[in-house]
From TrEMBL:
It holds the Pfam family ADH_zinc_N. InterPro entries: ADH-like_C, ADH-like_N, ADH_Zn_CS, ER, GroES-like_sf, NAD(P)-bd_dom_sf. Keywords: Metal-binding, Oxidoreductase, Zinc. Residues 8-359 form the Enoyl reductase (ER) domain. The lineage of its organism: Eukaryota, Fungi, Dikarya, Basidiomycota, Agaricomycotina. This is Alcohol dehydrogenase GroES domain protein. It comes from Crucibulum laeve. The keyword Zinc applies. One of its GO terms (cellular component) is cytoplasm. GO terms for molecular function: (R,R)-butanediol dehydrogenase activity; zinc ion binding.
Amino acid sequence: MKAARYYGPGDIRVEVIEEPRPKEGQVKIKIAWNGICGSDLHAYLTTVVKFPTKTEANELTGETLPITLGHEFSGTIVDLGSGVDGKKWQIGQNVIVEPVISCLKTGSCGPCTAGSRNICPLANFIGIGGWGGGLAEFIATDVRYVHHLPDSVPLEVGACIEPLAVAYHAMKRSGFEKGKTALIVGGGPIGLFLLRILRSIDLESTIIVSEPATIRRSLALKHGASHVLDPVKTDRNVSEVVMGLTNGIGVDVAFDAAGVQASLDVALASIRPRGIFMNVAIWEDNPRINMNLILSREIVVTGVMGYDRVHEEVLGAVASGKISGLGELITSKISLEDVVEKGFLALLNEKDTQVKILVHP
């Protein structure tokens, strides 16, 4: 089968590899769509993401580079391994995969014992640590990671559930609720998914998006932002504008979905006393943090690592229409052969025209 294989920063190759067979407790999935994630882009540029190396295997998968990329994917079951419940899992079912993997050592690992696999010390992802990936024609994976995709949800939207779950977990951890105000710094896929989620909770609250790319600002307005700011062209600091839009109080929650020093500075300066700063971004460099600002305003600073048991809730919200419009955020659909030129490089170099790119193996 064809698969996009990651050899290291700047080195992704579409190759022919052996097609997987489902082992005991696994299902084989024919991939329909795989979204290119921000963490994939970070991996293309640098080594900040937790990939194995050519000589050091991942502790959970035992794999070294190269590995098959892709962790935002949907598909259809085409085969069942031994021991799989044939009443629950059937050939022809559309599914998604929740790709977080962990040590699963209940009793000795506190997070895994509590069920919070995403913050296990060894936590990683299918498609990053190994065990196949969505940028391939097929994957065989344990049923513990698989969720049924409701009939009302198209496979294209199914490939957006994984990043949507990241945004949903961030919303829950932030304590955002009806009547609260928010700033989203960064209008990429996660930022726009956050916007859709916040609007599903409150149609009237002030939600501000700061984003330099034209198409992303346009989509933010279309999908419910109260105000959209261009941090490059505004004649005042974004935080000053935010303060003006909130009667000098500041927002209840600021989400950083950009992960650069300027976004952190703006987010912290825009938060009301005892407000929440929620980091959703992966950072390539360690930022400087104004601890005296945090001290003087008693700001709560936190972040999210993926998601924690929210997929079923997210799937229900999408299937019911509570969270909608996700398909409108998909700006391109490409073939696996074009994954580097029309996928990775397009997202890095064409931010004024691209938001979410899906790959069809």
